[in-house]
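Project outcomes to date are best conveyed with an example. Our students and postdoctoral researchers have been running inverse folding experiments weekly, and each run begins with a structure described purely in tokens. The record below, which covers 140 residues, was selected by the lab manager from last quarter's runs and is presented without edits.
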């Protein structure tokens, strides 16, 4: 059993931006040279989220709309009132979506469903530089 780590630098363009990380995950697993194991994908930020989705235009739109219905940007959030940065909704959305995923892999291939991709979603009120860590524990 061993471990392998890769850090990705991702620049998002705007709030609601969805970045597909699936190929980054695939290539990191290949680079690890492990055949069996678990990959943890983690974003080291409190205003972004990680999840799996069928990464197509309709669902990307639906995800943005669902987050707006559940956690409206226009509400008065105590965080915004305290700091004046207008991103209280971003922190709440991130807490609900989560900032990490565990993906098992077998024979060097992630155990993702046919229509399942790993994505990062920018939840802050502007684009940001993001750090995504992929940490793998596995066997050759």
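After processing, the design step wrote out the following sequence:
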């Amino acid at each position: 059993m061993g471990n392998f780590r890769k850090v990705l630098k991702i620049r998002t363009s705007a709030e609601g931006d969805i970045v597909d990380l699936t190929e980054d995950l695939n290539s990191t697993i290949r680079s690890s040279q492990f055949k069996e194991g678990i990959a943890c994908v983690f974003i080291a930020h409190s205003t972004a989220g990680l999840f799996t989705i069928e990464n197509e235009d309709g669902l990307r739109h639906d995800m943005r709309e669902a987050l707006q219905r559940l956690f409206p940007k226009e509400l008065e959030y105590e965080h915004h009132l305290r700091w004046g940065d207008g991103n209280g909704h971003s922190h709440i959305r991130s807490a609900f979506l989560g900032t990490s995923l565990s993906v098992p892999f077998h024979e060097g291939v992630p155990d993702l469903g046919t229509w399942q991709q790993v994505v990062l979603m920018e939840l802050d009120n502007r684009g940001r530089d993001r750090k995504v860590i992929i940490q793998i524990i596995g066997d050759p």
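The chain has a mean pLDDT of 96. The longest strand covers residues 129-139. The training component of this project remains on track.
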